[in-house]
Amino acid sequence: MKRYAMLLTLPVLLGAAVPSPQQAPPLEIHASHAWFRYLLSSVPAGGYMTLINSGDTTTRLVKASSPACGALMLHQSVNHGGAATMEMVKSVTIPAHGSVGFAEGGYHLMCMEPRMKPGDKVGVTLGFDDGATLMLLVPVYGPAGPPGTSSGGP
User: How far apart are CA 11 and CA 102, in angstroms?
Assistant: First the structure.
């Protein structure tokens, strides 16, 4: 069963869940403040957002894909005894009536071989453990991040 929603612009979620032809119930996972930081085509781009679960059931993000990336992976920055590293993760749990932030220093999307540039809006599909998908249109910013943010993030 596929369910769709689209993030059209930052920082406001303009789209709403759109049922598939089978008239699936609205998707209970929503994304806000989604964006990519693009540096160079030879450097991975980072994807950031907040995933919000308005449903009564905990769910897990298990995959991400985008035609603008050679590969798009779920990553987490972790600190091991003072050394910061990035590790690929198999899933990210979004609690019922809760949210999870994807931000620098934590969970993020790692876009290998980015095919994007600042000013673009790129499609991203997020896949969940129940088979649901969330489709986003994500704006791309340069090293400073979205305008009007002091830390480079929303």
Answer: 14
